[in-house]
Design brief:
With 511 residues, the protein is mainly α. 63% of the residues lie in helices and 0% in strands. The protein has 18 helices and no strands. Helix 8 runs antiparallel to helix 9. It is flat. It starts with 8 loop residues before the first helix and ends in a 16-residue tail after the last helix.
Length: 511
């Protein structure tokens, strides 16, 4: 209840003491994250949103989730979350630390004055009040009113004029309220706050924990909005992109060029096949499958030069596609290393169980970071070759067989190092087989669950290829669902220019 004019500072202190001691009130307990303070899961529990909430209202509550790229990331990346802070060794982190140090030093000097100067402290309490209120769920009226009553900055300012501010009492109330509202993972931080005596350091640590709580709340919202996004993302993303296209008609230019290049590649392939087939009718117009064109375009994304701008319709998955490309490059090298080793010294290791897996374990750590500009692939391959020779010789010695000759070792190391060269035949062969596997995956009906057979030479990386392939197909299939109508119009325009153009179709183009 608001204070009457005739209430004095004693009643103020009584009210503050009563509010501070009410931490056991179950009505307030963890209003923002949990509804039951007696059960503390390891992460914020789900709170039921209003049952009549609309999708747009839910998106607005999540702040900026109407950004279609962010919505896509939240829906498809279950590990997506907000990070807690800037790295301390970064420039921005260093600047932030310097500014904060100066502020807290200034606050300490103000509070040490005689009489103390409270203006900056009052502004801090006002900011703390707003942060605490932002954690409350709809309907938490009692704790909302209490926070506004206890952290009434006008009243605190009046008390400051009479040097009667109970700053420690206010801080204790804030800590107790934070304890009710925070996720269980912050309980230890709250205990540490209660053990802090210096008021300036206490206020500083309160803000630190509040920052953590804000991030916890953002991630809590993300967790709750994700299932809704996943159920509605196709329509939502298509609608948002249509809005962008209406505002910016050139928003499909790169996508059109991407599809056009795929059509030209397909026409070139058909032309090559026709020229090599005697009696082929070169006068007839070739028939091109729109689905094949799209699938070939998707395959090219795994060979994309990523400084080159990716098609607009794939911006939301650019990072994932780049990571898959980098992973495939590493797997290709490993398959090449194993194939060369088997071809050159296969007789020496034919009886060694799981030798291919041993070669993989040698190669993987030495190929970490191979997609960085500073990475020396040839040097890494040379090191892999040396390790493999040592491994083979060790195996031969254990079985009482002669070690590899110096010439065989030199040839093996040299062949492995040559993988890094452009147009290396082994590398080209493995690359074609990887492309064939991925093309076979894209051609599978969506209802089919099993993987296609892995081509020869890829058995050593079969498990990894199937994992990468499933991720890749998931990205492609979702992209087709969202942008199929846009692709259909582009393909119709490029493949059948004489046909009348209509509105975007509602189905993905098929064979």
């Amino acid at each position: 209840m608001p204070l009457n004019d005739d209430q004095n500072s004693d009643s103020d202190s009584s009210r503050l003491s009563e509010s501070t001691s009410s931490s056991s009130d179950s009505e307030y307990s963890r209003q923002s994250f949990n509804s039951d303070s007696s059960s503390k899961p390891s992460s914020p529990a789900s709170a039921s949103p209003p049952k009549t909430i609309t999708f747009d209202e839910l998106m607005a509550a999540a702040k900026n989730l109407t950004d279609w790229t962010l919505a896509h990331e939240i829906a498809v990346n279950t590990n997506f979350c907000i990070k807690h802070d800037l790295p301390q060794n970064s420039f921005a982190g260093t600047v932030k630390q310097i500014v904060h140090e100066a502020f807290w030093d200034h606050l300490e000097s103000e509070l040490n004055e005689d009489p103390p100067e409270y203006e900056h402290a009052i502004k801090l309490f006002e900011e703390i009040k707003e942060i605490l209120l932002s954690f409350l769920t709809p309907g938490a009226n009692r704790i909302h009113n209490q926070i506004c009553e206890v952290l009434d900055t006008d009243l605190i300012r009046q008390q400051a004029e009479h040097n009667a501010v109970d700053i420690h009492g206010l801080a204790n109330y804030i800590i107790n309220t934070m304890g009710k509202l925070c996720a269980p993972i912050r309980d230890n931080d709250i205990k540490q706050l209660k053990a802090t005596d210096n008021i300036v350091e206490l206020l500083r640590q309160i803000f630190r924990v509040l920052d953590l709580m804000k991030v916890d709340m953002a991630n809590y919202i993300i967790q709750n909005v994700r299932p809704y996004l996943q159920r509605n993302l196709v329509d939502y993303e298509r609608t948002k992109f249509q809005e962008i296209l209406e505002e910016t008609p050139s928003a499909l230019n790169l996508t059109t060029e991407w599809i056009k290049e795929s059509i030209e590649d397909e026409l070139s392939s058909i032309s090559d096949e026709s020229s090599s087939s005697p009696g082929a009718d070169s006068s007839s117009k070739p028939t091109i499958s729109p689905t094949l064109v799209l699938n070939n375009g998707y395959l090219k994304l795994l060979q994309w030069d990523y400084p080159k701008t990716i098609p607009e319709t794939l911006i939301t998955d650019e990072v994932r596609l780049q990571e898959l490309r980098e992973k495939l490059n590493q797997l290709k090298i490993i398959a090449c290393v194993c194939l060369i080793t088997n071809n050159m010294v296969g007789a020496a290791i034919v009886d060694v169980p799981d030798f291919a897996d041993q070669l993989k374990r040698i190669s993987v750590p030495l190929l970490e970071g191979m997609n960085k500009k500073t990475f020396d692939l040839k040097e890494a391959l040379n090191t892999i070759g040396v390790h493999i020779c040592s491994k083979v010789n060790g195996s031969l010695t254990e079985r009482g067989l002669p070690a590899l000759t110096e010439e065989m070792q030199s040839n093996l190391v040299g062949q492995i190092a040559h993988i890094a060269e452009e147009n290396n035949p082994i590398s080209s062969l493995i690359d074609k087989r990887i492309q064939f596997f991925l093309r076979s995956l894209l051609a599978l009906p969506s209802v089919q669950k099993c993987m296609p057979a892995v081509p020869g030479g890829l058995s050593v990386i079969q498990r990894e290829m199937e994992f990468v392939g499933s991720q890749y197909v998931s990205i492609v299939n979702f992209n087709k669902k969202v942008y199929g109508p846009f692709y259909a119009n582009i393909l119709r325009k490029l493949l059948f220019p004489e046909a009348p153009m209509g509105k975007a179709e509602t189905e993905t183009p098929t064979t």
